[in-house]
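Risk mitigation, structural track. In case the binding assays with zinc ion fail to produce interpretable data, a predicted complex structure has been prepared as a fallback.
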Amino acid sequence: MIKDIIAVLKEAYKRNWITPRDGNISFKNSGSNNFFITPSGLRKQNLNESDFIELEIINNGWNQINNLNLKPSGEIQLHYELLKSVNLDLCVIHLHPTYTISAMYSGIDLSTLSEDFPELSRYTKIAKNTEIVPPLSKNLAFQCKANLAYDNNINEFRNNIVGIPNHGIVSIGADVYEAFEHVERLEHIASIVLLSKK
Ligand SMILES: [Zn+2]
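Fallback model:
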């Protein structure tokens, strides 16, 4: 999985969806109490497998297991909140895709795009945007989690991707490519909507 995450970060950088220090990705396997996350401060397009940080979920927080000279991503709270309460193979990615952010900036709630572009909802369920929340904040973490809407009864999130206005998106999947695909699909529609100037 870590090799795939490195490939996705390079691709996101190439597409201009992150600048070098933006973006973060984590994953946890079902049945495990530990998760892996990108480190803070390193250039995301040049990460090595050994740069990833392993964390153990403990009561009300986490315990860093390796790479003690590095810090986990500044958005650790977001990843922790999403990963801690589910028993799923789950990958969480946070990126800054250009058209999607532009669409939110122009006032569009991303969840409404499925009405005009029904094919979008075939594979990707889009949550309502969060409010404008500060980066790295607990409020960002809580609102993303609430809008992605984990359903205990089916052990799944009801939505796959959520937009944070003036900032970026959080997308989830069983693996990093599934999570990245939701970003690609939404970004494609967002670019069409903005080009139409409707
Ligand atoms: Zn961000």
